[in-house]
């Protein structure tokens, strides 16, 4: 528990420091996100937003509500996270097959991912992308008891949780994710 709190505090401090006085502060983010979204019209990635006032479990519920009737893999990650980027490359080998079957891929990060780095990475990551505020990310980490990233969650078509490794973290491997997504697709 102490390790989790220390991690969340470090992430919040890093995010606050990285945004202090820069144009990618939360107040400037909507215009920047709209610019990225406009560039995404022909791309295979989409920038999504949720109400910035949502906190904790309400944040996750708002994201899940966008995908009613779909099986969703949520990837909690950050641009600076080497294991996150390596896992994405591994996942890319099974992603097209799972997408054809009906799985939607959602990527959630926070402001600790610098805005310019995040925008530069988006074209390489097919799926829907959310960049939460420091407060939303911190609340979500605490609510989900997330010790670190990467971590994943599979949602059933009704938005309920089918599988997760949020409390343990790490990439579980293509076989585990493929199996968990396949089971959710049959429900």
Please indicate the percent range of residues in DSSP E strands (runs of 2 or more): 15-25%
Q: Which spans have pLDDT < 50 for at least 5 consecutive residues?
A: 1-42
Cα shape = globular
Q: Could you give the distance between the termini?
A: 34 Å
Order of helices and strands: HHEHEHHEHEHEEH
Total DSSP E strands:
6
Could you describe the largest sheet, including whether it forms a barrel? 6 strands, mixed
Mean pLDDT: 83
Query: What is the rounded Rg?
Result: 16 Å
Count of discrete alpha- or pi-helical segments spanning 4 or more residues: 8
What's the helical proportion of residues?
A: 40-55%
Structural class: alpha/beta
Spatial strand arrangement across the major sheet: 1-4-3-2-5-6
What labels would you give this structure?
disordered N terminus, about 190 residues, about 45% helix, 6 strands, alpha/beta, globular
How would you sum up this structure, described in words?
With 187 residues, the protein is an alpha/beta fold. 46% of the residues lie in helices and 16% in strands. It contains 8 helices and 6 strands; from the N terminus they run H-H-E-H-E-H-H-E-H-E-H-E-E-H. It has helices spanning 2-19, 29-39, 57-65, 82-91, 95-101, 115-121, 134-144, 174-186; strands at residues 45-47, 71-76, 103-109, 127-131, 151-155, 161-164. Strands 1-4-3-2-5-6 form a 6-stranded mixed sheet. A hairpin with a 5-residue loop joins strand 5 and strand 6 (161-164). Helix 1 runs antiparallel to helix 7 (134-144). The relative contact order is 0.19.
